[in-house]
Design a protein that fits this description.
The complex is a heterodimer of chains A (293) and B (795).
Chain A lengths: L1 H13 L4 E5 L10 E8 L5 E7 L16 E6 L5 E6 L4 E4 L13 E8 L2 E8 L5 E9 L14 E8 L8 E8 L2 E2 L7 E4 L2 E2 L23 E2 L4 E9 L1 H14 L26 E8 L1 E7 L2
Parallel strand pairs in A: 2-17
Antiparallel strand pairs in A: 2-3, 3-6, 4-5, 4-7, 5-6, 7-8, 9-10, 10-15, 11-12, 11-13, 11-16, 13-14, 16-18
Chain B lengths: L1 H24 L5 E10 L10 E4 L5 E3 L5 E7 L1 E8 L7 E6 L3 E2 L2 E3 L18 H4 L5 E5 H6 L9 H5 L5 E2 L9 E2 L7 E5 L2 E2 L4 E2 L4 E2 L6 E7 L13 E7 L8 E6 L3 E11 L3 E10 L1 H5 L13 E16 L2 E15 L3 E19 L2 E20 L4 E23 L2 E22 L5 E5 L3 E15 L4 E15 L2 E6 L10 E7 L4 E19 L2 E12 L1 E4 L10 E4 L7 E14 L4 E18 L15 E17 L4 E15 L9 E2 L6 E10 L4 E10 L3 E2 L4 E5 L2 E5 L8 E2 L3 E11 L9 E9 L9 E6 L7 E7 L5 E9 L1
Parallel strand pairs in B: 1-7, 1-8, 12-17
Antiparallel strand pairs in B: 1-4, 2-3, 2-5, 5-6, 9-16, 10-11, 12-13, 14-15, 16-17, 18-19, 18-51, 19-20, 20-21, 21-22, 22-23, 23-24, 24-25, 25-26, 26-27, 26-28, 28-29, 29-32, 30-31, 32-33, 33-36, 34-35, 36-37, 37-38, 38-39, 39-40, 39-41, 41-42, 42-47, 43-46, 44-45, 47-48, 48-51, 49-50
Chain lengths: 293, 795
């Protein structure tokens, strides 16, 4: 639902005499927090977990990395342990051999991040993802959702299915053009059971994904560009994290919500001087790529 | 079922009241009553607030909402006079040896430039009346205020009064003395209007051509009103000219309007019908590039207001009135629309010269639809929500004697509320529905109040309203376990209830009291106290209220909102009532005000009540007001100094925090000057302290998104820049053609004259093109000067 507000913001911004301009404001300095950004998935690629600290809001620099952490991911179901090693910019990585993945469906995981003698931790179990049937590219001649245009742009639509049972599934749909992720603040495309953007927690099963989730963030493509879509499974808590983050980073316009702090699923051990916040999610991913033509 | 119960209750109540009234009437027949209606000679409209009095005495009576008056005087000869500003005084000799029923038609004074007046009441009503915290705006007065895009608007006019603010342009509704927008009972011919806004709040739903009288009550609220805790905005529609046909219309920048009123049976039956339709969409579209997303979009509103009345005889009049309006907004893949519909049926009955009754029954429906769709693939996701009210409300006024006016009655009000009904439609033709069960509530109230002239200088009004609320089936009640503050409450159990079965009841006695002590003929001191109860609240965690906000009714989880307000005021007039001044101070304490846990999921959520918090509120302030009523130059200046805070467990570290609509200083000026016989010019100036806002003190980066974060947890820790604005308006009245009735005028207006970009909000975002850079952005709803021309006509 908050996603719906987002579309309203876009529309209302076009409307009337409204305007946005950048202003200079003096803000207080907040106390430092450790930020753990751990979205691990079952794709056969190098897995990354980032450990950084918070920064002053207007500090125009890369996030300050934490370089001395020990990052260990434990698979409680299989008993395996994965030690992530520091690379750069706060990223700790684990290189996967071509035959296997860290993340396995229905396995339970614990993340331990030790810094200066304190172990920050979180747990998560990996959920299933949806079935991605196809991506359909169609020319925008007024029939698509993009405006009709002379340089023949294309819209891509997602055809995907939720797996039937009575538990809600939470998805994060990532869209790439020519392998570049759309990562603008408005591009976060999440849904429950495929009924896009509507944040209900009621167990309802749908067969097909519906708009707005299927509209893939309203992007357009030129002929011969590629469109890749990944559907990542999210835990319920991480889905609601995105709902909350979406509101915080798109908070302009008439439909702005009261600012609030995003919630964390990283637990700070007792006695630690610095609090940690962040997210840990283990995702099953399904992906498909097409060439627009 | 509930209606039968209420009917029974009503019958018992009525018998009780009639018996007690009889005991009044048995006093000796040395006094008699003259009663009737006061009407406008030109169009037959009831003159609300016009007075009739015995010359040279303090004995007088004023006409009620339907123009009815009742004046009891000793037997004998009297010189009686009528009084209403702007109308000729009508004086006559009366021999009173029996009860007399007589109606009067008052003629407007010849309009002389020096005598332009902007209130339609007795000149010193503000001093004499027991009312406080009350503002009456005459539609003629509202018409002169320079308006956004040249369109006269009632809600925007209200926002110029002391104690009334808004969070900004484009926010629905208005805030009264630190109350949220859902705490205002907005009545259109007694039916509640849930969303008073068109186009997100730029215009209100009330068509000024169909409105006769607007009254805002902020304090000392009499017992006949209830159901909202902060204010009553009582809007009365015109009855329609019962003498001759009249047509009003206007062509403006944003919309056009047309109203027709005419007698059906002269002096007995008349109607008014008024409509508006915006056409900004039609005007703008040809100028948009084909790539603009608005090209394929809809954005318009329309409304229709109609009323018919039939005066059966001297004792009985019936009225039917209704409103229907909608806003439609959307683009090709996304759309939403919302609107109110209200209908009121009323019967005025005069039992005898001392007892007047009005029974109103009304229906009110507010609903909205929201939709995402992809037509060519037959995929869509739609949802809707609505709230419906049905009510019956008999109201009696008993003019016991020249010292006591007793008002009593009751109301049964039913809430029929659909939180959501959503449908997902798929290409295959199959669909899925998420539908919440409807929720029902019934509110019964009984009330009685007496306005008593205790001493020549002391008038008091006291009353009691008792409201009883039942949350009833058919439905499912949810029971939650307690948890730590600011976390969703886990569901403990649910229980099904059958049709009409009681789930939870609340009873609230609501005492009301006001007094007026007249120091002399030019000044008075007033004081009031009222307790109010409210059984529904708006669920909204947006910074400004929007049309998508959902109401929710009191339940086993949500307690009714309660407010206690006390106020004291000093009223003083100068220069033969040319200047009115007043100072009022108030203190308001609220209980069970809604707030939300962080990351609350308020839409399409069966367990939304587990995410709501209820807390305390307090608001206090001082309102200063100077108004010049007469002369070429007239208008008012008001200044309010106030503070509004909340305390909610789990929010802002359990400390009091400023509410979103706290405005420390609020200055409103509205002046009007009659330049020549044809030209009238006007200006507004407003200055408001910036609204509180929560700003971050750090950022955290997750998945490369820069998320603002406030490590102190304090809500509303900053203020955005103050809001100020100057508007000009000028009206040119074309020369009246003596032979024809056709009159026309043209209104020029400039809104935001010095082109200030007032901040509606400040938000934080990542700078485009640099993932490590973040910036603060000021959002201004109206970021430029807005000139407009409107052409008005009537005949």
């Amino acid at each position: 639902m908050k996603k719906a507000f987002h579309y309203l913001i876009i529309l209302s911004a076009l409307f009337f005499y409204s305007c946005n301009d950048v202003v200079q404001i003096k803000l207080d300095e907040g106390s430092k927090l450790i930020v753990i950004d751990a979205f691990v998935n079952d794709l056969r690629e190098k897995q990354k977990i980032r450990v950084i600290t918070s920064d002053n809001y207007f500090s125009n620099r890369a996030a300050p990395p934490v370089t001395n952490a020990t990052v260990i991911l434990k698979d409680l179901t299989s008993g395996q342990q994965y030690n992530f090693t520091y690379e750069t910019d706060g990223y700790y990585t684990y290189a996967i051999n071509a035959a296997d993945t860290i993340a396995k469906i229905n396995h339970s995981y614990v993340l331990n991040v030790s810094i200066d003698g304190y172990t920050y931790y979180s747990s998560c179990s990996q959920k299933r993802t949806a079935v991605l049937d196809t991506i359909l590219a169609q020319q925008d001649n007024g029939g698509g959702f993009g405006p009709p245009s002379k340089d023949s742009s294309y819209s891509c639509l997602l055809f995907a299915r939720d797996k039937a049972d009575n538990n809600p599934d939470y998805y994060w749909i990532k869209t790439f053009r020519n392998d570049t992720l759309f990562n603008g603040s408005a591009d976060i495309n999440i849904c429950i059971d495929g009924t896009g953007g509507v944040a209900t927690d009621a167990p309802q099963d749908t067969i097909m994904f519906t708009p707005p989730a299927t509209l893939l963030s309203f992007k357009t493509y030129k002929k011969f560009e590629s469109c890749k879509v990944q559907i990542h499974s999210l835990s319920r808590e991480n889905y609601f994290f995105f709902i909350q983050a979406l509101a915080q980073i798109n908070n302009g316009g008439l439909f702005a919500t009261t600012p609030e702090n995003v919630k964390t699923n990283i637990i700070t051990p007792e006695g630690a001087k610095i609090k940690a916040i962040g997210r840990f999610n283990m995702a099953s991913v399904v992906e498909q790529k097409i060439i627009v033509k | 079922m509930p209606f039968f119960q209420s009917l029974q209750l009503y019958m018992k109540f009525k018998i009780f009241i009639l018996l007690s009234l009889l005991s009044f009437s048995f006093f000796g027949q040395d006094k008699f009553t003259i009663s009737g209606y006061l009407k406008d000679a030109k169009n037959g409209e009831a003159l609300i607030g016009a007075t009739i009095y015995k010359q040279g005495s303090q004995l007088g009576a004023s006409a009620n909402e339907y123009g009815f008056f009742s004046l009891t005087l000793p037997k004998g000869e009297h010189i009686i006079a009528t009084s209403l500003i702007g109308y000729k005084t009508y004086t006559f000799a009366l021999t009173l040896d029996q009860n007399i029923s007589r109606s009067f038609e008052l003629s407007e004074e010849d309009r002389q430039l020096e005598e332009v007046v902007i209130t339609a009441e007795q000149e010193d009503k503000n001093i004499k009346s027991v009312e406080m915290g009350t503002a009456k705006l005459d539609i003629k007065q509202i018409n002169k205020i320079p308006a956004l895009l040249g369109e006269v608007d009632i809600i925007r006019a209200i926002q110029l009064l002391p104690g009334v603010t808004t969070v900004g342009e484009g926010a629905s509704g208005f805030n009264v003395r630190g109350g949220n927008i859902d705490q205002n009972l907005i009545l259109l011919d007694e039916a509640p209007v849930y969303n008073s806004s068109h186009l997100f709040g730029f215009f209100s739903v009330f068509n000024p051509d169909a409105v006769k009288d607007v009254k805002l009550i902020k304090g000392g609220i009499p017992a006949q009103y209830g159901g909202r805790v902060s204010s009553i905005l009582d809007i009365r529609m015109k009855e329609g000219n019962s003498k001759k046909m009249e047509v009003h219309g206007g062509v403006g920048t944003i919309f056009s309007r047309l109203s027709i009123e005419a007698p059906i049976i002269k002096d007995k039956m008349s109607f008014i019908i008024a409509g508006r339709r915006s056409y900004i969409d039609a005007l703008v579209k040809p100028f948009l590039k084909s790539s603009n997303a608005l090209k394929k979009s809809d954005f318009y509103f329309y409304d229709l207001t109609a009323k018919i009345n039939y005066r059966i005889n001297d004792k009985n009049t019936v009225f039917a009135s209704g409103y229907f309006g909608r806003d439609v907004f959307g683009a090709s893949v996304f759309g939403f629309n919302w609107g109110n519909a209200t209908g009121t049926l009323r019967w005025n009955h005069v039992f005898n010269s001392k007892l007047f009754m009005n029974i109103s029954s009304f229906y009110s429906n507010y609903n909205y639809y929201l939709e995402f769709k992809l037509e060519q693939l037959n995929q869509s996701f739609k949802w809707k929500s609505n709230i419906i009210n049905y009510s019956v409300k008999p109201d009696f006024t008993y003019y016991a004697n020249s010292k006591n006016t007793i008002r009593f009655g009751m109301q049964a009000l039913m809430y029929d509320f659909l939180p959501y009904n959503a449908t997902g439609q798929f290409e295959s033709g199959s669909s899925v529905t998420f539908k919440s069960a409807k929720r029902y509530g019934i509110e019964y109230s009984v009330y009685a109040g007496n306005e008593q002239k205790l001493r020549p200088r002391l008038t008091i009004e006291y009353g009691l309203r008792v409201s009883m609320y039942e949350y009833v089936g058919k439905g499912k009640a949810y029971y939650y376990r307690d948890t730590i503050a600011n976390e969703p409450q886990p569901l403990n159990s649910t229980q099904k209830f059958s049709n009409g079965e009681n789930i939870k009841s609340y009873v609230n006695p609501e005492p009301r009291f006001s007094m007026n002590y007249r120091i002399n003929s030019l000044s008075s001191v007033k004081a009031s106290y009222n307790r109010m109860a409210q059984y529904l609240q708006l669920i909204s965690n947006t910074a400004a209220s929007t049309p998508l906000d959902v109401y929710t009714i009191a339940s086993n989880n949500l307690k009714p909102l309660l407010a206690d307000q006390g106020s004291v005021g000093y009223f003083r007039n100068f220069k033969d009532n040319m200047f009115e001044t007043s100072v009022e101070v108030y203190y308001k304490y609220l209980q069970n005000q809604l707030d939300y846990i962080d990351n609350a999921d308020l839409f399409i959520n069966e367990q939304v009540e587990g995410q709501l918090l209820q807390g305390l509120g307090r608001a206090y302030g001082a309102e200063f007001y100077i108004k010049k009523n007469k002369g070429k130059l007239n208008g008012w200046i008001s200044y309010t100094l106030s503070k509004t805070e909340r305390l909610v467990r789990g929010i802002s570290n359990d400390n009091w925090f400023f509410s979103r609509y706290d405005r420390t200083h609020c200055l409103n000026t509205s002046v009007n000057y009659d330049l020549t016989k044809r030209w009238n010019v006007s200006a507004n100036f407003v200055f408001l302290s910036g609204t509180p806002a929560t700003f971050p003190n750090s950022k955290i980066q997750i998945q490369n998104y820069n998320i603002p974060y406030n490590t102190t947890g304090v809500r509303n820790n900053y203020r955005i820049t103050p809001y100020h604005r100057l508007d000009f308006g000028a009206t040119y009245n074309f020369k009246k053609n003596e032979t024809r009735r056709y009159q026309q005028s043209i209104v020029f207006s400039i809104y935001n004259v010095y082109n200030r970009r007032n901040a509606f909000s400040v938000y934080f975002r990542t700078t485009a093109g640099d993932p490590n850079q973040t910036e603060a952005v000021r959002f201004s709803v109206i970021g430029s000067i807005v000139p407009a021309v409107t052409y008005n006509f009537n005949f």
